[in-house]
Amino acid sequence: MAMTPRERILRALHRQLPDRTPTDGWFHPAIQLRLKEHFGTDDWEVVLERLGVEGWATCSVGLRFPEWEARCTQRPGSEPGQPAVWVDQRTHEDGWGVRHRIGASGWYEQWVDGPLTKAETIADVEACPLPSADNILAPDNYAERIADMKKAGKFVSGDIPNPYKTAWMLRGMDNVLADYLIDRELLEALYDRLYGLYTEMAVRMVKAGVDMVTVTGDFAMQDRIIMGPDPWRAVDRPRMQALIDACRRANPDILMFVHSDGNISELLPDLVDIGFDVINPLQPEYLDPA
Questions:
Q1: Per CATH, the architecture of 55-64+117-280 is what?
Q2: What pLDDT, in 10s, does the model give residues 41-52?
Q3: Diameter over CA atoms, the chain
Q4: DSSP readout, 59-96?
C-alpha cells in the first residue's frame, strides 16, 4: 500500500523502510524560473510534484524589529520590492544592524559590516541591542496552522540559524575566528545571548507541533572545520547540546536537523552524539556519503 508523503518522510527519518525514498530539494530562484519554463507552468508546486519533491512544509517563528521596520524604504532607483534600510543603491542594513552589498549581477550578497566588529570587551557585547525573546513573532494561530499542515499530509519543520553564522555576521569572520583563540570569553558572552534567543525560538516551534527543528549555517570549508574541531567542541558543542536537550524536554520525539556545506567528517561523531538525527548535506566532492 502506497504511503502518504508525510508517512514516507517520517519512516525514513526514523530509520524505517518507506515504500520509496522521499526526495527534497532547495533551488535558487533562477533555477526555479528555468524549471517552470521547462515544465510549462507558473505553479512551483506543480514543478515540485513533477520532480517527486512532495510532503515538505516549513512553518517557523521569526523576529520582528519595530525600530528597523520604521526606517525601511524601497530600494533607490529600482522597482518596488522587499523594503529594507538602504544605505545606498546596493547596500542595505538588516534588523540586526548587519550591512550587506548586492553583487553586480544581483544574484548574491556580500557581507560588509556588523554592529560588533569593533567590540573589544564583554561590556561591548552586553550593550549591543540584539533581539531578545520579546522580538520573537509567531504566525497567527501558529499551532493550528501546523496541525492543519499535518492533516493535509505535510511533514512540518521549523528553522533557526546556526548561532555561529549569526555571530560572524555581527562581529566579522576574522574577529570571530580570532576570538576562538585569543578572546574566548567575549565570544562566549555573544554565544550565550544568541543561543538563549535561538533556543527560545526552537522550543516555541517544538511546543507548537513541528516535526523537526532545522539548524542551518555553514561551519566547514571544503577540507576542514572552519574554526577547527577542538574549538568547536569547547565552545559550540555544549551550547548546541543544551539547545537540543531543551527541544527534547518539550517533545522527546522531535527530530533535529543540522546543515553545513563542506567537509564536516571530523565532527560527524559529535553531531550524532549530541542528538542530531539528520545531517545535510553530504558533499560527495569532499567526503564519502557511505
A1: Alpha-Beta Barrel (3.20)
A2: 999 999 999 999
A3: 62
A4: ---EE--HHHHHH-BPPTTS-S-S-BEESSSSEEE-TT
